[in-house]
Input
Amino acid sequence: MRNAIPYGRQNITAEDLATVVATLQSDYLTQGPMIAAFEEAFAHYIGSKYAVAVANGTAALHLCTLALNVKPGQKVITTPITFAASANCVRYCGGEVVFADIDPQTYLIDYNSVAKLLEASPMGTYQGIIPVDFAGSAVDLEKFKALANKYNLWIIEDSCHSPGGFFVDSKGQPQNCGNGNFADLAIFSFHPVKHIASGEGGMVTTNDEKLYKKLLQLRTHGIVKSEDLYTNSIEFAGGDTQYPGWYMEMQDLGFNYRLTDFQAALGLSQLKRADEGIIRRRAIAKTYSEAFQNKSFIKGQSGVVEGHAYHLYIIEVEDRLGLYNYLRTQNIFAQIHYIPCHLMPYYRQFGWNEGDMPKAETYYKHCISLPMYPILTDEEQQFVIATIFSYYEKHQ
Output
């Protein structure tokens, strides 16, 4: 039996290892210089003014909803085809999640579905939108920004799948996912199967200085260490003419959502290969797309899309369960992304039922994510394709 072929896999190089070891041998394991270095490099790569490194993508989402002051009962719109964290961050603040159906061609949240929700409710019913660059396909945020401006909404762009991805705006210019030109905040994940791996880890990007400073505070227990921000007196702090060096203030209820320096070191090292990884992912996608074109058992696929970052390559098929199980017998570990969030038991308690999101539910019945990662070899990919062909030759 050949070695396992998973749907995603990290690639750790000798340079990655050396960078992490050097950081482990340095004076700082946390709250040191590697954090700022990673943030600066990532902001430059994405094209945003600011970046804030955090513990993981879920922490990034939570900090965003906190920074935007989501309150109990406020309604926020997102897609049902995403990892649960995209919706859960609203619930962490007591907000109400409202799902909008997907576009069955792109698998992204459907602009028209969101527009209908907003048009059907009084102004002020909704506070924000969380579009997801699902599978690496970039949401056209220029369109959503115009909608958000009309209804006075904020936007959090969930870009966990799409560092290096982009959409083309109305002027023909590429707009990088997370660059802050249209969304108030954007988030990324550095989980091992993502484009950039740091074990765990996440990043928030923004062009808003006020939100940036709020994120820094909330990331570290709500604590500030700046004389310009202190509210207690110098005398109370224990100083004479100035605040003593030890002084700090907790001014908000924050969290310990910090990234370690050795994780940042790994992320920074991986970031150097980000463009190389995107090129390889797009080549793999092109091979899949050409192989499955005009095949009767293919009901839909990711295809070749400009600006797609290809965290996932998805096909839609009949007898998905049969194919999934057959691939596993051949040591190919495809995955399903995702079970619609609105039908998770937790969200069903709020009144969501089967039939509410028909396009998302139809997609779920047929979708399967194929192996997609830069170190997938040509031979391994051809084996995956041949195995899928073999299954349908036997079962059609």
The chain has two domains: 5-271, 274-395.
